[in-house]
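Q: My labmate handed me this sequence with no annotations at all. I'd like to see what the chain might look like in three dimensions before we decide whether it's worth expressing. Could you predict it?
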Amino acid sequence: MQHTHSLDDYRRDIDLVTFLEQEGFRIKTSKGSRHSKWVTMEQPDADRRLIVSRKQSGEYRFYNPCDDFDKGTIIDFVASKKHYDLSTKKGWREVADYLNNYLGRPTHQQHTVRPQPSEEVKRSRAVAQYFQLEPLTDTRYLESRGIRPETLTSFPFSQRIFNQTYTNEARTFLVTNTVFPLENEQGMLGLVVRNDKYNKIKGSKEDGIWVSNIDPARAPKEVFICESPIDALSYHELHPPAQPHERMYISMAGTPSHTQPLTVQRLISRLRPEKILLGNDNDPSGIYYNAMWLAQLNPAQSGVGVGPVGRVMASDRKCTMLFDGLATGTPQTEAFIRYWQQGVAILNRGYEPDQQRANLDVIGGGASPITQIRMELPKQRPFLIRLEKMISDFRGITQFVEVKRSIEKDWNEQLQHQRQNMKLAEKPTSLFKESPSGMMLAANSQSITSSLYKLG
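A: Here is what I predict for the chain of 456 residues:
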């Protein structure tokens, strides 16, 4: 009978100090020897220092005093170094093979790993173990942002948000974070980690996105795309769908990466929603993101008349729009050029020649079989709002993609402002003041203010 190995065995059986030495680390002698309770390991030519200890259970653990997220067991070290995805069966097998090779044991092709009850349970345990996910029981942070508990347990968001407890090695500091998993088609890549004073990504973002639940029996009618997961929750509170399953929410966790739009496009092509809602922030960067999505998204429900996919890029002060690969001299390309020539005039309306203005270049043409349309404009609100509409009209996607702009900077600010206004509106109805004659006066906020002045 072949011997089976549990991944727990590696955490206990492999001396982590010796293993790290094989990985290029060395013991910092001023901080004790390999037989000390705490062993400090340094990586030459790299600013990385790991403290290694062994628990009463026999498990070796490490942590980086300069990086709160660089900690764990030998499993975490190998997965991080080799970029193995522990949310998949393949990732766990790759870790086992790496460590078996270190121990001189056969790889998975010759041995079997202890089975788990089901693929779904296996993946769930793997994800929870690697990312240390906990059920969302502490909702104080989200409630402080105006999100109601019933929203968090509703269909779109149930089990799509988690807690994660962080404590330092000395156990002198503990905080419960709210986390949103970032996933691609292969599994989980990282987490958006939030608390009152912290907003970072643990792990990797790459092409991973945060998504709400999808009803496997009924595709959503619309997809809402935004920057922050909290904005998705806030928009749901402000504008709930007719039925919970009719809308899916997607968050980029900040600035979209180069590969996140590919994940979003594949999802949209598969789900074929009737409408895409762009709910990015109401500031120049958010409006630029809207233009970026309008230039490159292909709504699945749209017809063959959708215009060419473009690229919109931006620096701190300038925005550039490109349409590449247009066939030179065709009636369609000439029509495109005329459209954007007129578009530049619209963008510059109200701006004098000595001010910052949009400009258009047509690159190629003539002997070249390919023409490129290139337009540059200031990254300023009036230009960007006009650009949104022009791209949507140009591509013929107005009825399929809609911009949803918050009144405040973002949807969560709008939600919190609405909550404050509701509290102010409710307050006067419960305020009564006894007059000198003994009568009880109920008043609105204006009359109460005037009464205070009179009684003063």
